[in-house]
């Protein structure tokens, strides 16, 4: 397998880099779509960790958690797109700093 030739530390460094990119995107962007993409990066970094540790310990528990995380990410995107559509309909922008309240 591929994981046998590459040390687990490389995957952990990759996961940390992806997590930092996602965290940077959440902290610096004002666009709601960029928020969603950054949260997806955070979840993918966690998935990389879960798969690597599941392989390292020889169990499938981490891979099962990855499936649950993917389902959570799909639900998050569906709800997030609905919120973005409401933002765009009410404020003609997806900038989250313009929307203080979602009143009519």
Automatic annotation (TrEMBL):
Name assigned to this protein:
NADH dehydrogenase-like complex subunit K
Provide any one GO MF term from the record.
oxidoreductase activity, acting on NAD(P)H
Which top EC class is named for this enzyme in its record?
oxidoreductase
Protein's cellular compartments: Membrane
Family statement: Belongs to the complex I subunit 4L family.
Give the way it sits in the membrane: Multi-pass membrane protein
* Source organism superkingdom: Archaea
Specify the taxonomic lineage: Archaea, Methanobacteriati, Methanobacteriota, Stenosarchaea group, Halobacteria
A Pfam family per the record: Oxidored_q2
Any one of the GO BP annotations: ATP synthesis coupled electron transport
The record's annotation in Gene3D superfamilies points to: 1.10.287.3510
* Coarse class of the protein's main subcellular location: membrane
The answer to keyword Lyase applying to this record is: no
What HAMAP family does UniProt report for this protein, alphabetically?
Answer: NDH1_NuoK
UniProt entry tagged with the keyword Transport: yes
Per UniProt, the keywords (alphabetical) are:
Membrane, Oxidoreductase, Transmembrane, Transmembrane helix, Transport
């Amino acid at each position: 397998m591929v994981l046998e030739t590459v040390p687990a530390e490389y995957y952990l460094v990759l996961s940390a880099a992806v997590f930092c990119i996602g965290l940077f995107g959440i902290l610096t962007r004002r666009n709601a779509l960029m928020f969603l993409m950054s949260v997806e990066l955070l979840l993918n970094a966690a998935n990389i960790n879960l798969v690597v540790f599941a392989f390292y310990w020889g169990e499938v528990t981490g891979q099962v958690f990855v499936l649950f995380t993917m389902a959570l990410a799909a639900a998050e995107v569906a709800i997030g797109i609905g919120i973005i559509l409401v933002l765009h309909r009410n404020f003609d922008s997806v900038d989250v700093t313009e929307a203080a309240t979602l009143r009519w």
